Amino acid sequence: MMCFLGNKMTKTSFLLCFITLLASSALPSGSASKHHRVGFYELKKGDISVNLTNWGASIISLHLPDRHGKLDDVVLGYDSIDTYKNDTTYFGALVGRVANRIGGAKFSLNGHKYKLVPNEGKNILHGGKVGFSDVAWKVKKYQNKGPSPHIVFTYHSHDGEQGFPGDVLISATYTLFGHGKLAVIMTAKALNKPTPVNLAQHTYWNLGGHTSGDILSNHIQIFGSQITPVDDDLIPTGKFESVKGTPFDFLKPRPVGSKLKELPKGYDINYVLDGVPVGKELKRVAVVYDKKSGRSLDLSTNKPGVQFYTGNFIKDVKGKGGFVYQIHAALCLETQAFPDSVNHPNFPSTIISPGKPYKHVMLFKFSTKDRPNFSRV
């Protein structure tokens, strides 16, 4: 099988074709037990290595060289599985069945009202009290050799889990490619009922290294001209607002902390990404650059939004090697559908059904250079 974009196959479309076939071939055909043995797994390609665990299908570390070749771990996390099991920050996890927030922990679908399990006041966050970040996933496939080291995690979410309807088969594939590329493919297949699905990868990034302090001096460019504003409980109002002239405007690159004084705590908002994916190409989400190390992160996706979060609720969190993380120790770029979409008909739908599966692609490109690949506006 081949995937083409128009009359030619570009390097990007070839890459996406490959990871699409990999992810689709790995979609589980049976139930994944909640009692799988939990362990650590490494993917290594050149001088980049990623460590993961099947607890929450989580990224626990990612080592990158700086401009002088010095390797650092650029992901916040913990040393032990037990700590991940008691984590409340979602460090590195894959979250769902519905990532982000659903107002009032309820929604209606096809005339039926569903009451979910709230875990943030009256609302539900990242799937509820026992979301996908709080279970052991099955390791469907693990290959750490060859041109594209990869691992596939699967999970069977049962009808009624945290109040959500229907059985859903979930697959998360992490693949390392040459030239500093990490692909994350998340798929979902509804077995018997329509249900909302919105998965997100919740890694906390600090390109200076996870022990380097805050990320407020990192420069960031976000390719989103609008946000979905929220109320005091961080639930979207259903409106769209332009970022122009506000602290949320990162259309031109600037330091993360350059306008932080204008916000109560920091950034925790969904951006409406500009443009639409074409064929097998993805749309650009954001570029992050750490001047001191020279490391940059360039993210693309096929989803309509991204939650930009600056670790506002991190306080005295004991992480890897005993290092204690504090507020703004990292940033998250969680590509996603819009939060609370099930309660806003004007938002793109998150409902999947038998015969209408879900697919979420993230492509990270890491590099080290004195001038990052920011776009001109």
Summarize the structure.
The chain is built from 2 helices and 28 strands. The protein is mainly β and 377 residues long.
Q: Can you characterise this structure?
A:
By secondary structure, the chain is mainly β. It contains two helices and 28 strands. The strands form eight sheets. A nine-stranded antiparallel beta sheet has the order 10-11-12-13-28-22-21-16-19, covered by helices on one side. The longest helix is centred in the N-terminal third of the chain and has 15 residues, at 11-25. The radius of gyration is 19 Å and the shape is globular. The two termini are 38 Å apart. Mean pLDDT is 91; it is low at 1-14 and 16-33.
Helix content: under 10%
Strand order of the largest sheet: 10-11-12-13-28-22-21-16-19
* Count of alpha/pi helices: 2
The biggest sheet amounts to: 9 strands, antiparallel
Strand content: 35-45%
- General form: globular
Overall residue-averaged pLDDT value: 91
The CA-CA distance between the termini, in Å, is: 38 Å
Please trace the helix and strand order, writing H or E for each element: HEEEEHEEEEEEEEEEEEEEEEEEEEEEEE
Would you report the number of β strands?
Answer: 28
Secondary structure class reads mainly beta
Round the Cα radius of gyration to an integer and report it.
19 Å
| Low-pLDDT regions | 1-14, 16-33
